[in-house]
Automatic annotation (TrEMBL):
Keywords: Amino-acid biosynthesis, Aminotransferase, Branched-chain amino acid biosynthesis, Pyridoxal phosphate, Transferase. It holds the Pfam family Aminotran_4. This is Branched-chain-amino-acid aminotransferase. It comes from Loxostege sticticalis. Its EC number is 2.6.1.42. Belongs to the class-IV pyridoxal-phosphate-dependent aminotransferase family. Residues 37-57 are annotated as: Disordered. Coiled coil: none annotated. It comes from the Eukaryota. InterPro entries: Aminotrans_IV, Aminotrans_IV_CS, Aminotransferase-like, B_amino_transII, BCAT-like_C, BCAT-like_N, BCAT_family.
């Protein structure tokens, strides 16, 4: 092409970039053809109507993407990521060679074909709704390599259900969770050498859904991007030498409130916890114990669900956690602990409101035995100290001969790493 003509073309592109937006944000797998063919048909349905909170998401598979459409583009040798030493892993610092992307474009009929591709940066319009109104959500689950060398996921269906509930709350498109599990399975299979050959490390899976529509206006986005990235991880955070954590309960800050989104895994729940966590750290604590209301109800600890073990009024050992009242994330670990422990005959298991007054009373009476946090990232985190107002409360968690937290942790790890066969673990490779 003569130089002058190409200069004119470059100038035209520069001046008309905005008109190319639709083209730029579409990848080769977008369904132009299918769209043309269905042009005569009625408009695709918008997101399904919101059901009452806490019900199962109303998903109709016709509007989901399909794992059968998955397209795979493998990384070239120069695109492979350097593999870290096991001792350097930390949490979420390294990423694998591939990622999964599924675009959603309302104008093009909704969900597009899922693609696995070499890990890459995202290119996102500065006006994308996710960047301004936190129209986004994320999930966290893990792939575990067992001693039999098989790779397992732990109850991924529950993560999918939670993801869809968060999507509904934020006006993001919902999808069929089984289809995403199949896509994630393929992604983990492709990057399977990144699943650590160790029982102290795992491959953390981070599905994320963001509203990408590049317009101001607080409305359900017309376009979105679902992506999944993988990160080999070891310890989530530092503990004291005995493996326990110290937590600080500040009654002046709340993580969630009734009618809010404490029960949804949306990014806007996490950014605002940083200042309080840093303040707790300055006072020598590892995490924040999130309280709510005039009775100082215990809700969660850091990014974990909270559990307490104590001797109840009947003289029995009881494992308790606060009920799912909208302030609390319905943790997969929480639910699994409740289900597993309720089969143990020597333990009473209860969901009940727990207050700081009750913690202090039980502790003074010598009936409080243990406190611990539970979540996918940490599994179980025993708590040995609680800072509250002017008090520094010692919790005898690490002094128990046969602590419940250890039994719970051993049981979960045995399922996750395949020491015992259990329906919670799904073998994927
Ligand atoms: C606020 C909060 N609570 C609890 C949990 C534990 O949930 P799960 O067991 O599903 O990891 C998490 C982690 O996702 C969390 O962020």
């Amino acid at each position: 092409m003569p130089l002058r003509r190409s200069k004119v073309l470059v100038k035209w592109i520069f001046e008309n970039q905005h008109k190319l937006q639709t083209v730029r944000c579409c990848s080769s797998s977008l369904r132009y053809k299918e769209l043309e063919e269905s042009a005569a048909q009625p408009e695709p349905l918008a997101a399904p109507p919101s059901p009452a909170p806490n019900t199962r998401p109303h998903i109709s598979p016709e509007i989901s993407f399909k794992s059968d459409d998955l397209q795979v583009r493998l990384a070239a040798p120069y695109q492979l990521q350097p593999k870290p030493e096991a001792g350097d892993l930390g949490f979420g610092k390294f990423f694998t060679d591939h990622m999964l992307k599924v675009h959603y474009q309302r104008q093009l009929g909704g969900w597009q074909k899922p693609e696995i591709m070499p890990f890459e940066n995202l290119s996102i319009h500065p006006a994308a709704k996710a960047l301004h109104y936190a129209i986004q959500l994320f999930e966290g689950l893990k792939a575990y390599r067992g001693r039999d060398d098989k790779i397992r996921l732990f109850r991924p269906d529950l993560n999918m259900e939670r993801m869809n509930l968060a999507a509904q709350r934020s006006g993001l498109p919902t999808f069929d969770g089984d289809e995403l599990i199949r896509c994630i399975t393929r992604l983990v299979q492709i990057d399977q050498e990144w699943v650590p050959h160790s029982e102290t490390s795992t491959l953390y899976i981070r599905p994320t859904l963001i509203g990408t529509e590049p317009t101001f206006g607080i409305q359900a986005p017309e376009s979105a991007l679902l992506f999944v990235i993988l990160s080999p991880v070891s310890a989530y955070y530092k503990t004291s030498t005995d493996g326990a954590v110290s937590i600080y309960a500040d009654p002046n800050v709340v993580r969630a409130f009734p009618g809010g989104v404490g029960n949804r895994k949306v990014g806007s729940n996490y950014g605002p916890t940083i200042e309080a966590t840093a303040r707790a750290a300055k006072m020598g604590h590892h995490q924040v114990l999130w309280l709510f209301g005039p009775d100082h109800e215990l809700t969660e600890v850091g990014a974990m669900n909270i559990f307490m073990v104590y001797i109840n009024d009947q003289g029995d050992k009881q494992l308790s956690t606060p009920p799912l009242n909208g302030l609390i994330l319905p943790g997969v670990t929480r639910r699994s602990i409740l289900e597993l422990a309720s089969q143990w005959e020597d333990l009473t298991v209860k969901e009940e409101v727990l207050t700081m007054k009750r913690v202090i009373e039980l502790n003074q009476q010598g009936r409080l035995l243990e406190m611990f946090g539970a979540g996918t990232a940490v599994v179980i985190s025993p708590i040995s100290r609680v800072g509250f107002l002017d008090e520094d409360i010692s919790i005898p968690t690490m002094k128990q001969a046969q602590p419940v937290f250890q039994r719970v942790k051993d049981t979960l790890l045995a399922i996750q790493y395949g020491h015992i066969e259990h329906p919670y673990a799904r073998i994927i490779s």
